[in-house]
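Molecular record:
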Amino acid sequence: MSTSKNIAIFASGSGSNAEAIFNYFKGDGQVKVSRLLSNNMNAYALTRAKNHGIATMVFDRKQFYEGQEIADLLLSENTDLIVLAGFLWLVPETLLRAFPNKIVNIHPALLPKHGGKGMYGMHIHRAVKAAGDTESGITIHYVNGQYDDGQIILQECCELDASDSPENIAGKVLKLEHHYYPQAIDKLVRS
């Protein structure tokens, strides 16, 4: 009898990518989202998870950076892959050691451009606009001990028009995120 693969998602905000992942794996007999964790007790991602019957955990900075509790919980739940979906904190060594090459992130730009500390959300899309880039997109990558620095798994692009506002760019990139992130996760977790 084969056991199902378990995905844990970390999210800090609204959780639209988490929702896309929930919907992608809903009813899949082999892969399930087993937990959503957040560093923000007011994150709408928590509500989205509860609406899907997915267990949640809210943690603080001390639990995340100084303890073993989160790694132990995820190990006890046989987590196969950790997915960062709009999660803004740097992942600590305890998790990186417990889940080597099993933590992935999505960045809403084509790394290495527009990455690093402080480059998240609309900051990225404003930077893309200010740079006059003719394309943007997503980068799905493994997580290491630095922001947006891990090995790239997948990049997908969208063309930009000179008239695109940062909000238009965000919309185009978000479509790519919702389409490609669940598929990439599916391939990774089944391999």
